[in-house]
Amino acid sequence: MTSAAVSLVSKILHANIRRSRHIENEPTMDQEPSTKEKWRLIFKIWVINTLCGPLLFIFGFLFLDGNFKHLQEYAKTHYHYFLPLNRFFEAFNRVSISDPLQEEFYFRWPIWIIAVLIYKVGRKIEYCNLQFFLTWIPAIVLNTIWVSSHLTSGKSYYFIFPALFFTGLTWTWLTIKTRQPWPSIVAHGLANTTIYILAQLLKIIGLI
């Protein structure tokens, strides 16, 4: 009887050990995505912004005091997007490399640091439901400041707020999701390059 009880307890212990090892090896929601998955996320964010950005821009233009005069004035302050193709490398260096690096450093890298620190702290933060607030409250504040920095001359340019705020949040989400700074830089540069190419196409067909 005693040997049977010992055998049963031994089996239970071995089963619990195997189960705990299995759980430890399972991927979790907080597990950092692989490099391949990060590139997939970058592509998804690019598609979302390419589809939603123009719609939000039109919405802002129609309902937030936008007019063609203001649009022309704003375009002049961002002339690099309209440089001719024979100055492509100059435009690319500015809109696809320099601007994304600088802006991500000031407005998304602090969120990257916060996200990494919260992940390092571990389950105590997650259990207290503070992870979301500690990450996204400063993220939204910094994103709003980033958008405001594009409004150059006050209310005349508020029509760009919805599109910029949305795209900025997608890059912030990318930073938090990947816990790496480079995906948002790539996504930002890709978006700016897309805008430059679109501007060139509009020039070719005579719309601008």
From TrEMBL:
Signal peptide residues are: none
Q: Which Pfam families match?
A: Rce1-like
- Which keywords are on file for this protein? Membrane, Transmembrane, Transmembrane helix
State which residue ranges cross the membrane: 41-64, 133-151, 157-176
For whether the record's keyword set contains Membrane, the answer is yes
Q: Look up keyword Transmembrane and say if it applies.
A: yes
Q: Name one GO biological process term.
A: CAAX-box protein maturation
Q: Where is the CAAX prenyl protease 2/Lysostaphin resistance protein A-like domain?
A: 95-193
Among the GO molecular function terms of this UniProt record, one is:
endopeptidase activity
Q: Which residues form a coiled coil?
A: none
Q: Which InterPro entries match?
A: Rce1/LyrA-like_dom
- Protein name listed in UniProt: CAAX prenyl protease 2/Lysostaphin resistance protein A-like domain-containing protein
Origin organism is Candidatus Yanofskybacteria bacterium GW2011_GWA2_44_9
